[in-house]
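Hello forum,

I keep getting stuck at the same step: I have a sequence, I want structure tokens, and every attempt I make locally crashes halfway through. Rather than fight my setup again tonight, could one of you with a working pipeline run this one for me? It's a single chain of 157 residues.
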Amino acid sequence: MQTILYLVGKTNDHKLNTLVEDYKKRIEKYHRFDILTIPEIKNRGKLTKYLQKKREGELITDRIKQYDYLVLLDETGKQMDSLFFSNFINARMMGSQKRLIFLIGGAYGFSDSVYKRANEKISLSKMTFSHQMVRIFFLEQLYRANTILRNEPYHHQ
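Reply #2:
Ran it on my machine without issues. Output:
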């Protein structure tokens, strides 16, 4: 199975990009993993929040295949501790889907069409984070989940 992290919009922060690449390389040691960026909408400042989410949603759903297992990182999603998340990852890896897709949305979240297509929603915290920082937090948890599954000495209880 391939795991993909889709991101809406890029970041120009060199330090964040360096951390993203570091975790990407770490995760690739365990399984096929990629990070794909969905471009930001042009002239989005002239659009309402609804139209911006709708257009982003169209770009997202165009990239998601029928057989993909889509997990939204969303503040209303299910919260998990690291052990539960590692079991979640393991169960998805053993499933019949070809691709496990995690999606970090734009500043205004997801369109209704993306919510309808999603198989699950997970939340990293009850707190609100910038979608730039969520990338790092999520990648660290995905790396941690892989080390837990292989009994490596990264996670401490």
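The chain has one domain: 2-149. If your local run keeps crashing, start a new thread with the error log.
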